[in-house]
Amino acid sequence: MSIAEKLQASLNQILAHDPWYGPATYDILDSVSFEAAYEKPPGSVHNIAGILLHMLGWAQEVAARMNGQTAGEPTGGDWPDPGTPDEDKWKQLIADFKLSNVTLTGIIQNFPDDKWNEPINDERNRELGTGVTYQALIEGLIQHHIYHSGQIALLNRIVGG
């Protein structure tokens, strides 16, 4: 199995299949009502919609880096404001997140085998996740998705979703 096939399988596993640790990200999102998505429990820094916007931004940023863009923060910022509760906006956010991962899967699938262990040509900055190999970049995004999916699942339980 090639590196691309392994990374693609790992990404798809955590997003839509049966990961070892619990529910897949898309299953978690399917369980969140738009009301729950915008509720911020006492003591929480972010609501579910804000976390998903953050995940979307970083999926898009990683796709851009895979296509040669210089590393930086996501175009919309690291933690964009999710705004006021809106059911259509919540559905669109989920659709945009899914589309960003489909786009990323295509990039992974078509990425040259001999480039996976090359650095992304940026200085190492732990906060921005730069200065790593292309393979580490995708592995990091997968870890990022897992981390925030767990937060979404917990927040959804707290708000009664």
Per-chain topology:
Blueprint: H1 3-16, H2 25-30, H3 34-38, H4 48-66, H5 87-110, H6 134-158
Helix pairs in contact: 1-5, 1-6, 4-5, 4-6
Give a quick set of tags describing it.
single chain; 161 residues; mainly alpha; 6 helices
Describe, in plain words, how this protein is organized in 3D:
The relative contact order is 0.20. The longest helix is centred in the C-terminal third of the chain and has 25 residues, at 134-158. The protein is globular. 58% of the residues lie in helices and 0% in strands. α4 packs parallel to α5 (87-110) and α4 (48-66) packs antiparallel against α6. It has 161 residues and is mainly alpha-helical.
Write a short abstract of this structure:
By secondary structure, the chain is mainly alpha-helical. It is built from 6 helices and no strands.
Coarse structural class: mainly alpha
Number of strands: 0
Strand content: under 5%
Radius of gyration: 16 Å
Question: Averaged pLDDT, please?
Answer: 92
The profile of the biggest β sheet is:
none
Query: What's the overall geometry?
Result: globular
Number of distinct helices: 6
Run of helices and strands: HHHHHH
C-alpha end-to-end distance:
39 Å
Helical fraction equals 55-70%
Contiguous runs where pLDDT drops below 50 for at least 5 residues: none
